[in-house]
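Morning, I've got a small favour to ask if you have a moment. The fold is given in discrete form, as structure tokens running alongside the sequence. I'd be grateful if you could look everything over and explain what you see. No rush at all, and the record is pasted right below.
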Amino acid sequence: MRLDQKFSFRFIFFIILIPISFISGCGKIPNRNTAISDTAFYFDTAVTITLYGEGNKKYIAQAFKLCEYYENLFSKTIPSSDVSRINQTSISGIPAVVADDTFRLIQKSMEYAELSHGAFDITTGALSALWDFTGEHPEIPSESMISECLATVDYRSVLLNVNNKTVMLTNQGTILDLGGIAKGFIADKLKEYLQTQGVQNAIINLGGNILLLHDKPDGTPYNIGLQKPFGTGGETIATLQLADKSIVSSGIYERYFYENDTLYHHILDTATGYPVANDLLGVTIISDCSADGDALSTTCFTLGTEDGLALIESLPRTEAVFITSDYQLILSSGLKKTENIITLKE
């Protein structure tokens, strides 16, 4: 998925089911249990950061500055960004020197491309742009156009030079797209910053990607509502009780259109160029690292229930919830064994 496309669409899969008090002009709040929250707009989506304790309010502004910094590195539409300069290499053939964070993010992306045998691929920019799910009148691209774009999709065309920190695309016409992992990477960076400042409890929400810093100040876990696919009014299908975890979802119910009674969604199959066709409505990943969860949510959806679940079971400290087309929830073994982590709705 395109970075800008993924960020621009409402991607709220979770509802924080805790009372949150917002700072106002009504005086100081002495209680360290009080939540201080602010929202800003980056990556074409709402970014909300919630910290506990009035003394931590000053760290939110710096966290937003970090969001701006990473937007200027990873955005495909900002001409001076690292990603834009990398995309020019498919034409110029001249490697682009990039920031350390950009290089590390691409390295991690390549690891997931290898792990998934290309089911997760950051070279889908041209294909994603062809399927314009954000337009007023989306249409199914022609087979010839899809074939032309598919020829540019191959993660092996990304050439990395560790010594010089350069990136080059060796396949002409390839467009790099970090949308399937960038928000998770940025959430991890925000968490790292808050930890260095001594923040003990926080909720980082990047357009629906949730990252929890420890638990609530009273020592209890956060209650995270898992959105019901195609539900209305914030309807949830389950509740997760979690602390110090990342929660990321991918599903077909946020960006899609119908044509001839067939639903076409934004998660594209890198083998066919068309939306992934399987029995899933969505996948939620619970992990320590949000970048991992971001990449795995798309990967596991693309792989399908059986192969996606097998992948999750092979990874340490990683769990998943698969929602099938008949609204059945399939849980990874860790969620099945641990009581009180997930509560299913009747």
Confidence is low (pLDDT under 50) at residues 1-30. The first strand starts at residue 14 and ends at 16. The chain is about 30% helix and 25% strand.
